[in-house]
Amino acid sequence: xxxxxxxxxxxxxxxxxxxxxxxxxxxxxxxxxxxxxxxxxxxxxxxxxxxxxxxxxxxxxxxxxxxxxxxxxxxxxxxxxxxxxxxxxxxxxxxxxxxxxxxxxxxxxxxxxxxxxxxxxxxxxxxxxxxxxxxxxxxxxxxxxxxxxxxxxxxxxxxxxxxxxxxxxxxxxxxxxxxxxxxxxxxxxxxxxxxxxxxxxxxxxxxxxxxxxxxxxxxxxxxxxxxxxxxxxxxx
Length: 236
What we know:
Elements: H1 2-17, H2 21-32, E1 36-47, E2 50-61, E3 65-72, E4 80-84, E5 87-92, E6 97-101, H3 114-118, H4 122-125, E7 126-134, E8 137-144, E9 153-159, E10 165-171, E11 177-189, E12 192-202, E13 209-218, H5 229-234
Antiparallel strand pairs: 1-2, 1-13, 2-3, 3-4, 4-5, 5-6, 7-8, 8-9, 9-10, 10-11, 11-12, 12-13
């Protein structure tokens, strides 16, 4: 009987959306990230009795180019992180040096890793193998297509009416929960509705979390020269 109920929920969600699981995942990617976007955000890293705030500007173009530039605090101004395909570099202005990183490393010591913010098209890296309905959400079960990505499995809650994500749970291949990401406070930036606040919680240490609050968005053309090591060192 339980299997029949689950099957009916899956069919109902498919009928409401007119999409299979992978089609739904692509719609979420398109709703969240246009061909190019520049946004300014405040990242807050919470630790017991402490918090650290950082102002950043994020540039994303296409499927394989992203740049994060830190504006505040003053001691981190000019620090930049570049991702092109599977390669990640950081420029340290204090020593005028470019160092190589990975997408799985934590960004500035918080709960977000570089891939969470810079490798944003989940439909490129994951297959959605199941689709279920819960209240007014569809739940996608995502499995990694290859071993290059940070997470082996993701459970993804999506609103049926606007394709915006509500929550994501990140798992190891053995099924261990690593982190929980909550999307909240949807706002219109131009004509595009997006969650304005993302909260990443550590599943092992409850007091550890990091928020990302989007302040403004711009969809103007981004020159390709931003996504080069020369820009990391010299700027425009």
